[in-house]
Each structure stands twice: as structure tokens, then as C-alpha cells.
Amino acid sequence: MQSRTAHGAREPLPRVVAQPQIRPGKILLEICLDSVESAAAAERGGADRVELCAGLPEGGTTPSAGMIAAVRRKVAIGLQVMVRPRGGDFHYSADEFSIMQRDILIAKQLGVNGVVFGILTVDGNVDKDRMRQLIDLAHPLKVTCHRAFDMTCDLARALDDLMDMGVDRVLTSGGKKSAVDAMPTLAQLVQQAQGRISIMACGELSIVNVKAVVEYTHVREVHAGLGTAVTSAMRFKNQKISMGTLANSEYQHIVVPESGVRELRAAIDSI
């Protein structure tokens, strides 16, 4: 049997992938990444989930269907997929919203465990109408509101809105660049949530500071990048031109090392 989209096109029924089992009481570690290589390293290093993105220098955009499928085949841990049609702000046109709807359907068909998105109004509030539409479309996948939350005009009100809509978790640095600088705010959000939504801390988390952040705020989920630059294997290098806007980006790429994930996992487990 097939379902129909709003445009009347037939859609295959989504592939159902069970949520990985997590030990009760464990502090969860999610790693943000953009490649199969990094996803495999994150799993070996002890991550509980990965957030798969493209365009990490822009804060993350939607990865390709080919990349999602390849990562899903490679790892058994939780796979969250970013649904963000472009960099920049989080107020989207009708065409961009339609793209997000289609990308969620594709992610479901490829067997992901959850999707990550956020939409705001021009006044900096959560766009409750369009968020609800995407949440309904994503069901039964887990839904995370990404750091669009940090760009709202009122974090407490935004959290209430997300809880009312049934969002599963919110990724946040407490409205600041670093979670360390926002620990009082993160603690307030955890208290406000009262277990109705998971507060996942992010923002420059490392083995140096993760213990302090978790102990102060009482978050039970943390999110980190950990990517390091790997030099290209190319022997010939044309230094006269650049393919993108990032300096020297043609002959290096970012990979998450297994050792970095393992060290952060050990720091979290020591709490």
C-alpha cells in the first residue's frame, strides 16, 4: 500500500528502524558530522547517536539521500538527519518549506531514527503552525529542534511552545556561543522542561569542560562536533584558484576521529 503527498504523488511507506536501546540513566552523546567515515568513527568511539549534516561551515544543512543511505548502512547507532534547506536564518519561504517536507519523507524512507529542524517567524518566535506540520509528517520519527531555538527572542516561551507541540528534544547552547557561558540558562531550561522534553547541551563542549556543564545543568544529553582537518592525499595541488569561500578548503576535509569521541565518552562516563 502507498500513501499520497499533498501534491498527489505516491510515496512508499517509510522504512521502520527501531530506536537503539540505551541503558537507563546513561548520559547520551551525539556527534555532529558530515561523512560515512566520521559516522563509523563516532560509533566505534562510543557515541549513542550521530547527527548527519551537509554544509557544516554554515551550521549544517540537509545531507543528500545518497549520504543518508550510506551512513544508515554503515552504523547501527541512532541516526538523526538535519533538515535545513539552506544556511542563514530560520524563516523559510513556501518553496523552502516544501523542500523540507520532501526531505523528511525521504529521510523516513531511508530508515533514519530522527530528524532535526526548526522554523521561526520573522519576530523570532517558533513558527508553531509549520513546525506542527513537519512534526506530523515526521511521525513516528524522533524530532529535535536545532539551534534555531537559540535564535528565538524568548527561550522560555520557545521551550513551552516546543513542549506543547510534542518535540522530543531541543539542541541548545543556552543562547550563547559556548555552553560553559550559558550554564545558568541551561540549568533553568532543564528545570522548566521537567522531563517533558530533553535538553541537549552543545556549544564548544570538550573533555575539559563537559563534566562541569553536565554537573551544573543536569542535562542528560550532550552534542559535540570534534572534527579535525585531514590533509588531502592529492600530490598535485593548484593553489591559484579556490572552489569555495573557505580559504585552503580544496586540499583538506574535516573528519571526526575515533580517539576524540572515545575520550569525550570517557569524560562523560566519569560523571
Q: Could you explain the architecture of this structure?
A:
This protein has a single domain (25-269), classed as TIM Barrel, CATH 3.20.20.380. The longest helix has 16 residues, at 94-109. It has helices spanning 36-45, 65-74, 94-109, 128-138, 155-165, 183-193, 210-217, 258-269; strands at 3-4, 10-11, 28-33, 49-52, 78-82, 114-117, 142-145, 169-172, 198-201, 221-224, 228-231, 252-255. The protein is globular and about 55 Å long. It has 271 residues and is an alpha/beta fold. The strands form 3 sheets. It has an 8-stranded parallel β-barrel, surrounded by 6 helices.
The overall average pLDDT, rounded, is 92
Tally the beta strands. Answer: 12
In N-to-C order, the SSE pattern is EEEHEHEHEHEHEHEHEEEH
What proportion of the residues form beta strands (DSSP E)? 15-25%
The helix-and-strand class reads alpha/beta
Identify the CATH class: Alpha Beta
Describe the global form.
globular
Taking strands numbered 1, 2, ... along the chain, how are they ordered across the largest sheet? 3-4-5-6-7-8-9-10
Q: For this structure, what is the CATH homologous superfamily?
A: Copper homeostasis (CutC) domain
CATH topology: TIM Barrel
The CATH architecture can be named as Alpha-Beta Barrel
C-alpha end-to-end distance: 49 Å
Low-pLDDT stretches are: 1-10
Give the count of helical stretches.
8
- Work out the count of structural domains: 1
Radius of gyration: 19 Å
Biggest sheet layout: 8 strands, parallel, barrel
Helix content: 25-40%
